[in-house]
Structure formats: C-alpha cells, structure tokens
Amino acid sequence: KTAQQAESNLGALAIWMSLGQLYQNTGRAEAAESHYRQALEAQREAGNRRSEGVLLDNLAGVLKTTGRLALAEETASEALKIHRELGNRQSEAISIGTIGSIRQSTGNMDEAETLYRESIAIHAEIGSRKYEAQGLSNLSTILGGLERWDEAISMQQEALATFQELGDRQWEGVAVARLATYCDDRRQFKEAEELYLKAIAILKAAGDVRTASVNLGNLAGLLLATGRAEEAETLFIEALTNHRKLKNLYSEGLTLGNLGALYMQLDRPEEAASSFEQALRVNREQGNRRAEGLACCDYAILKLRRGDVNEAARMWRKGAELLRAVEQHQALADKTSTMREACQKAGAQPFDAS
User: Fold this and answer.
1) Closest CA to 298 of 322, 315, 310
2) Is residue 106 over pLDDT 50?
3) Residues 241, 251: contact at Cβ < 8 Å?
4) Mean pLDDT for the chain?
5) What is the DSSP code string of 117-161?
6) C-alpha 223: how far from chain center
7) Contacts of 172 (CB under 8 A, 6+ apart)
8) Are 29 and 248 a contacting pair, CB within 8 Å?
9) Other Cβ atoms within 10 Å of 41 Cβ, number
C-alpha cells in the first residue's frame, strides 16, 4: 500500500509539474503559480525535499516574470539551500542562474554576471548542454548591455546553434530575439527588424506568448526610433494588453514607460503623464529600480515642458538617485544629456542630480 501511495504521489506530482510548466511556458502565470503551490504543499507534507527544491525553482521563475522580484529571490535562495544539502548539482546551477537573472532585472549587473558564470561552469562540468546554452544566452545579454559586442554576439550565436541542434524552438526564438536587440542597439535597424519578426514568429509557434509580446514591444521601440510612430503605438498597445493579460508586471512597467515616451514625442502630454504615472506605480510595486529611475527622468522632462520646473527637478533627482543606486551610469548619462537639452529649451538651469 505504501509503495502504491508513493507511486500515486509521483504520478500526481508529474501531472502538476507538467501543467505548471505548460502554463508557465505559455505565459499563464497565475495558473502556473497555483499548480506549483499545490504541488509544493503536497511534497512538503510527503517530506520529498528534492521535489520541493525543484518546485521552488519553478515558482521563483513565475514570481520573477510577474515582477515580485524580492519574493522570487527569496524563493530561489530557499531552493538553492535544498539543492546544496542534497548535492543536486544541476538544480543548484539552475537556482544560481535564477538568482542571477533576478539581480539582472534589478540592475545589479556585476553580481548577475558572477552568478551566471558560476551556473554555466556547473552545467558544463556535468554535461548539461541545454542549461549551459541557456546560461550562455543569458550571460550574453549582460555583455551586450556593457557593449562588449564581439563577446555578446559570439556567445549568443553559440547558444543559438545548441538550441537548434537540440530542437528547442522556444529558446531558439529567445536567442534570435536577443541577436535582434544587439542589431537594434547598434542602430542596424533593417537587420534588427527582420530578426525581431523572425523571433516573434518562432516564439508564437512555440506557444510562448509572453516572450513574443516582449519582442513586440522591442520591435515597437525600433519603429519609434525610425519615425514610424503610429505603427509603434499599435504594437506597444498590443504588447501592453498581452502583458496585463499574462500578469507580466515587469514588462508591463517597461512598456508603460515606453508609451509615455512615445506620447511625449507625439505631443500628447495628458496620455504621456498617465502612462508615466502607471509605469512608476508598477515598477515601484515590483522593485524594478532601473525602470522606475528611467520613468522618473522621462516624466521630469515632461513636467519641465509643461512649466512645472520645481516638480520636474524633484522628479529628476529621484530618478538620478535610483539609477545611481543600481549602477546604471550610462543610462543616467544619456538621460542627463536629454535633460540638459530640455532645460536649455525651457530657459531653465540644468537640474542638479546630487
């Protein structure tokens, strides 16, 4: 009877895990979280520490995608402790990578790079090619953010080749999308647009609506940068609708900030102000200090244009403080340049960022 119960428990766990992963991969975060939590409760009652650790990892991933970054890191750290106690090296590396991605989301790039490299080394040591490639793809995004383009592109292409060899369509789409952002960042707009469209098609075919929607927003940003504002607005709104449906707070906050910038560019100040207010609320709620700082700086420029100089200066100082706190020095330098130009046009003294 005990053996039958154990077998039944394992079967139920497999079903709950599979359903949770299906919901997670297709962007249905609320359903995924519900399934993971129910499975987690059952495994804790059964004293199955190994399965508990794996479920905590999966739950941390859902919490991250819905913007609950502090809780996500706490959950991943709990999983990491279990994996180390049990000597489960692959799961240990997955947890380390998850914590790295959370640090990246909050702008702590040095810590994120260290954690990614630690995770990749373990996966390489134990021969886990899929997870090693995922780690390389993630680390590549940090190198791209630091404009270490040769390293970033080479690493992403290496990861892409592995995903294609393994037949992993979802991660193939992710890697293609990341190569698109590298072209975008280097103002290779034609190549970037082609890669974004390719990535979105692959991701939709793989059922990953969440990541496809993120890249709709990226493509919208490209269209805005190349003077196609009406097309950009349509894609931003489509992406925002999907993020809200999927409860992807992280991407919702970023997209609201981008919409605010678009409406500023189109001289629609009321809509811009509304978008920035929403962006600040969402980013603050989910602890994305980088995105909150960027939105503060952009909103400050809008307030300056509308003649509210004192409030603009206050908002600017807050944004600059947030960006410095997460070591986003280049982003702050870019925003400072824009701010000085806006102050000159408004006949105001440049704001003090200290």
Assistant:
1) 315
2) yes
3) no
4) 90
5) HHHHHHHHHHT-HHHHHHHHHHHHHHHHHTT-HHHHHHHHHHHHH
6) 21
7) 160, 163, 164, 202, 206
8) yes
9) 12
CB of 260 closer than 8 Å to CB of 299: yes
Q: Which residues contact 143 (CB under 8 A, 6 or more apart)?
A: 151, 152, 155
d(CA 86, CA 82): 6
Q: What is the pLDDT of residue 43?
A: 87
Structure tokens at 1: 């009877």
Burial of 158 (0-12, 13-18, 19+ CB in 10 A): middle
CA dist., res. 293 & res. 287, Å (int) = 11
* Joined tokens for residue 281: 């609320």
Exposure string of 238-277, with b = 16+ CB inside 10 Å and e = fewer, is ebbebbeebbbbbbbbbbbbbbbbbbbeeeeeeebbebbe
User: Is the Cβ–Cβ distance between 43 and 52 less than 8 Å?
Assistant: yes
The average pLDDT across 69-85 equals: 95
The CA distance from 114 to 136, in Å, is 12
Length, in residues, of the chain = 354
From CA 215, how far away is CA 255, in angstroms rounded?
11
Distance between CA atoms of 16 and 103, rounded to whole angstroms?
29
Q: Could you report the per-residue pLDDT of 248-304, keeping only the tens digit for each?
A: 888 899 999 999 999 999 999 999 999 999 999 998 887 778 889 999 999 999 999
Measured CA to CA, the distance from residue 81 to residue 60 in angstroms comes to: 14
143-165, pLDDT tens digit by residue?
998 889 999 999 999 999 999 99
Cα-Cα-Cα-Cα torsion 137, 258, 317, 145, nearest 10 degrees, comes to 20
d(CA 169, CA 262): 32
Question: Which residue is associated with the tokens 């280049």?
Answer: 330
d(CA 286, CA 294): 15
